[in-house]
């Protein structure tokens, strides 16, 4: 996961196209985040579903990451 992110960032720093690498990193990271958030809810049971809990916020953030938009930095620099 870290390698995908670093590769996309390195390509961007080099001024090379990185949209595909950034999309692959975003997809994989969002899938891992959702699995981790789901596991946290399972471990904590009902407490994980309470709106004010950190776990509930992690779940919402992970879902937002999954359905979020494209990378914000353009590869056409």
From TrEMBL:
Keywords: Flavoprotein. SUPFAM superfamilies: Acyl-CoA dehydrogenase C-terminal domain-like (SSF47203). Pfam families: Acyl-CoA_dh_1 (PF00441). Residues 2-69 form the Acyl-CoA dehydrogenase/oxidase C-terminal domain. GO terms for molecular function: acyl-CoA dehydrogenase activity. This is Acyl-CoA dehydrogenase-related protein. It comes from Amycolatopsis mediterranei (strain S699).
